[in-house]
Amino acid sequence: MKAVRVNALSEDITDVVIEDIDLPTPGDGEIQIRIRACAVNFPDLLMVQGKYQFKPPMPFTPGMEAAGDVVAVGPGVDTFSVGNKVVAGLRTGGMAEMANTQASSCRPMPAAMSYEEAAGYTTAYLTAYVSLVRRGHLEAGETLLVHGAAGGVGMAAVDLGKQMGATVIATASSQEKLDVLKARGADHVINVNDGFKDKVKELTNGQGADVIYDPVGGDVFDESVRCIAWGGRLLVIGFASGRIPDVSVNMPLIKGFSVVGVRAGEYGRRDPAKGAQNIAAIDEMAAAGTIRPYVYATFSLNQAAEAMCQLRDRRVIGKVVVTP
């Protein structure tokens, strides 16, 4: 089978190649999947660059989440049969024609979604759910400020925030991105290049945002501290800007807000019961068709490096997907 392979770490993703590799028959508890679509996520880029906390041994195949068809079942598997459509949660291996994975890491594919949509909803919406429900305790009637709102995890937060009854302010870096966000239900949109502190205060009658969802970090985090409401929750999702910011602890003291770290996967690993509830919640929404990722573009397996570069260069709105 053909697979994307990383034989050496590279900052500019130049060492990503396509190779023919052998795939063994599925082992105990495993299923073999014909991959139909694999979402491209920011951690994929970090792994290729050697910057992610999980560093797979090389050579490896990127791809953390995929959707496809079960083509073989290993011993001890009774949850899936050949022909089932599934969503697979992977650490690596999704950018390939086939993959073996534990059946326990797979779920039935939502009937309301295409392969491309199904490949791209789990990580984004699970991050948004853990952030807003478990960690941010967002309530109906509150104001939610979402940064990086045109990215996969940002757009998921906009969707979920609206479903939870919040007034959603979305920031992004271009008019094209703002137009998409407005069309998908954001109440207000702000071009982050123009600054956002004053506009957020204006939209909230001087009170500031109750919950701020920040996957960007850097200067965006710094400015967020200046437009958060009393008792607000500033959710740290990641540092896509590249700079990990600092906060003087007198600011949370004076303004009465909390800085809350969010690691959706770790949340589920440390509390498996609640982790299962979180997955069930987003799967229920997916099955009902109330959440649906925005697929900006699809790329062939040979174009996987370009897909990752588009994500790196902030050219993506929503999700990009590789279709082997």
UniProtKB/TrEMBL annotation:
Its EC number is 1.6.5.5. GO terms for molecular function: quinone reductase (NADPH) activity. Gene3D superfamilies: Medium-chain alcohol dehydrogenases, catalytic domain (3.90.180.10), NAD(P)-binding Rossmann-like Domain (3.40.50.720). Keywords: Oxidoreductase. It comes from the Bacteria. The keyword Oxidoreductase applies. It is an enzyme of class 1 (oxidoreductase). This is Quinone oxidoreductase. Pfam families: ADH_N, ADH_zinc_N. InterPro entries: ADH-like_C (IPR013149), ADH-like_N (IPR013154), ER (IPR020843), GroES-like_sf (IPR011032), NAD(P)-bd_dom_sf (IPR036291), Zn-ADH-like_protein (IPR051397). Residues 11-322 form the Enoyl reductase (ER) domain. The keyword Cell cycle does not apply. Transmembrane segments: none annotated.
